[in-house]
Amino acid sequence: MKFGTKVIHAGIEPDPATGAIMTPIYQTSTYAQSSPGQHKGYEYSRTLNPTRKALEDNLAALENGQFGLTFGSGLAAEAALLHLLDPGDEVISTNDLYGGSYRLFTKVFSRYGIKFQFVGMQGTAEIEAHITEKTKLIWVETPTNPMLNIIDIEAICAVAKKHNIMVCVDNTFATPYLQNPLDLGADIVMHSVTKYLGGHSDVVMGALVVKDEALAEKLYFIQNSVGAVPGPQDCFLVLRGIKTLHLRVQRASENAAKIADFLMQHPKVDKVYYPGLAHHAGHETAKKQMRGFGAMLSFNLKEDTAEAAAKVLEKVHYFTCAESLGGVESLIGHPASMTHAAIPREERLKVGLTDSIIRLSVGVEDADDLLADLDKALG
Ligand SMILES: *Cc1c(COP(=O)(O)O)cnc(C)c1O
């Protein structure tokens, strides 16, 4: 099955009871048993729910995996994965990662004796230097936020395999339409379903997808034992959102490419960070491991101040100033004062995150309107 067919059909059957084409919202916590222990595969909705099952099977297919698991948020999915680890275990993470993941690692799981190390993943040398016999997991996020750095998934998986270390890739920015980490050697794919998979800024949800059955069994045990599962209504909304994932990401990526070209020419703009641009440091790796360059981009201003950036954010009309990303509507953000405000300024500057960096989550509106909006706001 090709991707555009999978989003509509994979894991989704007409409802066996009624023939309903759309997966019903099975808004039930429990299921009738004809005799103790005699049931139709469903006992209790923390363990399994038919609406959730359809979504989990669909997600597994989209990522070319075998097993999908959904959670109440992206961070809940990450927490479930980290529950595989024991005190004393070590995790090597990219140093350029989603702030909420960083907080979960350093402020929550490190208290349980798990050690996190944050390293640069442009090349594998820093990873190799940090591997010990206690290293159990390598955490990769690519493209990164907000600098849109690209990490070579295949190269990192090759190193991990030599040392028998699991690799998890946060595939939120790329989406399974553009990148499938399991095909590149990763063991686990994580998604903030809140973003492109949901796609309409109306659900918070997370997911993990794996190929290996033994690993899946361990994760299902944690999903059921810890219990951070999403409700059936949200699963329905995501199933609905996914049906247009390929169309949305395709259009949003086209819009982003046009905006990147426009910003490159603009006299007020200094640098543009978009992996689709030939001068981007990760362009060749992106071409190798992605089927397109996505719809996230960042840029900074020649007048490199937070005040200058704020003026642009105040003047745009179709771009809404907000956190989050991946919805049909275009969003604009100022990482230094919003998503990345907790990072000290010197640390930010080291990775190129200057005071005027503006991040765009480009939506699926008409590109002409988006360009005119930015042109007006920059002028
Ligand atoms: C939003 C996000 C998360 C966290 O997901 P939630 O659904 O907000 O819990 C993790 N990683 C990335 C890259 C994200 O953008």
UniProtKB/TrEMBL annotation:
Cofactor: pyridoxal 5'-phosphate
Keywords: Lyase, Pyridoxal phosphate
EC number: 4.4.1.8
Molecular function terms, GO-annotated: cystathionine gamma-lyase activity; cystathionine gamma-synthase activity; pyridoxal phosphate binding
Residue numbers carrying N6-(pyridoxal phosphate)lysine: 195
Top-level taxon in the UniProt lineage: Bacteria
A single GO BP: cysteine biosynthetic process via cystathionine
Pfam family, one: Cys_Met_Meta_PP
GO cellular component, one term: cytoplasm
UniProt KW Nucleotidyltransferase keyword: no
EC top class named in words: lyase
Family of this protein: Belongs to the trans-sulfuration enzymes family.
Protein name: Cystathionine gamma-lyase
Organism from which the protein derives: Saprospira grandis (strain Lewin)
Source lineage: Bacteria, Pseudomonadati, Bacteroidota, Saprospiria, Saprospirales
Gene from which the chain derives: metC
